[in-house]
């Protein structure tokens, strides 16, 4: 039930991400189109000045001609300024597009990581090697070294031996093996406490929770292939 709910949640999340990206692209495209449509024509001022020249060809005085030249120069300046604004807007749109692509790439990475986490939830940690060294009080998980306490090493060793025999141990059985007593005389809570201390010693919550599986009403086991376990 929990796996089904997690899968549905991931699917809904993926659909929301895709819909959000599509909406952002659409909004950006519409904004760019509306912006460029509503920008005035760069030659509008020059066209108006040219019209003034044509409609007032009887202007012959030096002052009048000078005024028309100033207007023509102003039109050219306005045209150049508007062209620079268009370039700036274009650069900003390109920058926004680049940022959007980066965001999409980041979201795709998150989706891939989310799917990978889902696989880990279903299958447990993919362990290629588990080496337990009692002398060094260390465990090597996929060549990553974890320093453990003596009690944690004992607990992990018991779980490893049980996994190689395809056995699931209850808390009382774990306590019995470590203490050398009969499991019937041991408390279930004592074994559960050893498991908790082992997980605390491993430190990383994801690794500890997925490596040491708690099977309801049965007990504890290592969720790895027994063939990868070695003890020295």
Describe it for me?
By secondary structure, the chain is of the alpha+beta class. It has two domains: 2-123; 130-231, Arc Repressor Mutant, subunit A, CATH 1.10.10.10. The protein is 68% helix and 10% strand. It is built from seven helices and six strands, in the order H-H-H-E-E-E-H-H-H-H-E-E-E. A four-stranded mixed β-sheet has the order 3-2-1-6, covered by helices on one side. It has a two-stranded antiparallel sheet with strand order 4-5. A hairpin with a 4-residue loop joins strand 1 (130-133) and strand 2. Helix 1 (2-38) runs antiparallel to helix 3 (62-123). The radius of gyration is 37 Å and the shape is rod-shaped. 15% of the residues are buried. The mean pLDDT is 75.
How many H/I helices?
Answer: 7
Mean pLDDT: 75
Helix share, percent:
55-70%
H/E topology pattern: HHHEEEHHHHEEE
Number of domains: 2
Low-confidence stretches: none
* Number of E-state strands: 6
Beta-strand percentage range: 5-15%
């Amino acid at each position: 039930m929990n796996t089904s709910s997690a899968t549905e949640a991931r699917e809904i999340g993926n659909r929301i991400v895709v819909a959000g990206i599509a909406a952002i692209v659409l909004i950006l495209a519409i904004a760019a189109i509306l912006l460029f449509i509503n920008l005035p024509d760069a030659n509008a001022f020059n066209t108006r000045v040219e019209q003034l020249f044509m409609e007032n060809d009887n202007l012959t005085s030096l002052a009048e001609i000078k005024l028309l030249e100033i207007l023509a120069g102003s039109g050219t300046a306005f045209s150049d300024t508007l062209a620079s604004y268009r370039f700036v807007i274009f650069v900003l749109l390109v920058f926004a597009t680049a940022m959007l692509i980066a965001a999409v790439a980041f979201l795709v990475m998150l989706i891939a990581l989310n799917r990978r986490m889902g696989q880990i939830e279903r299958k447990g940690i993919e362990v290629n090697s588990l080496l337990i060294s009692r002398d060094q009080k260390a465990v090597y998980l996929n060549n990553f070294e974890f320093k453990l306490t003596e009690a944690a090493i004992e607990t992990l060793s018991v779980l490893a031996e049980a996994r190689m025999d395809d056995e699931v141990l209850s808390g009382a059985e774990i306590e019995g093996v470590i203490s050398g007593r009969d499991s019937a005389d041991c408390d279930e809570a004592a074994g559960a406490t050893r498991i908790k201390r082992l997980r605390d010693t491993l430190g990383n919550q994801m690794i500890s929770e997925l490596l040491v599986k708690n099977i309801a009403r049965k007990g504890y086991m290592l969720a790895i292939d027994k063939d990868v376990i070695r003890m020295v």
